[in-house]
Amino acid sequence: MLPPEPNGTGKTLRFAVFDLDDTLYAPECGLWAAISSRIDRYLVEHAQVPPARVPALRRRYHRKFRTTLSGLLHANPALDADAYLQFVHAVPYAELLRTDPRLQRMLAQIALPMAIFTNADRMHAQRVLQCLGVEQFFEAVVDVRDMGFVSKPAPAAYSVLCARLGATPQQCVLFEDSLPNLQTAQLLGMVTVLVGKPGAPKSAAQHRLPDIHGAAELLQRLSSAAAG
Q1: How many angstroms separate the CA atoms of 172 and 170, rounded?
Q2: Does residue 211 surpass a pLDDT of 60?
Q3: What are phi and psi of 114, to 5 degrees?
Q4: Considering the entire predicted model, what is its pTM?
C-alpha cells in the first residue's frame, strides 16, 4: 500500500482521481463505440436530425461543449437529460466488459482514496465498475449531474470535484485519456497523467502511461523520487 506523497509542489497528494470511459478499460472493448452509435440514433429518432447531418453536428457540439448532451441542452434547456442518458447507455455492458483481475490487483496497491470523475452519469459509471469488478475501490463518483451538466474540461466541473472531495486541485492526481481535460487539470494545479494516446505531444500531461494498469507503479515512482 502506498502512503500519500508529495507532488513536487510542496503539497501532499490526497486523492487519486480517475476518468472512466477509455481510461479504466481499453477503448478496443467497443463500449464507447456502442454508446456512440446510440447517440447517433438519439439524434435521428428523438432530435429529428437528418442522418447526413449527425456527424457534423456531433463534431460541432464536441468542439464547443465537449459532449453531445451539453450541446443539446444548450440548444434546448428543456431537454429530458435523464431520458437521453437512459437511451444512449442502453448497451450490453456484460458482453463488452469483463472482470479485470489485473486492474483489481493494481487498485488494491493504492492507499490514496480514489474517485471517478466522468462526463457520463452515475448509473453508467456503476455498471462499468461492476463489470470490471472494481466498484469497491472508489469512494466517490462525480458525474455529469453533480457538475450541473457542465462537463469537463470546463473549470467549473473541477470545482465540483474538489468540493465533493474536500480537496484542492494540488492535492489530486488525475488519470485521464482526454487531452483537453488534462489541460484544464494541469492549469488548475493537479498532477496529470495521460493514459493511452501514444502519439500525443509531450506537453499533454506531466506523466504518461500506455494503459491504466501502471497507475500504482507510477505513484510508487513519484513517492520514491520525492523521498529521495
Answers
A1: 6
A2: yes
A3: -120, 145
A4: 0.91
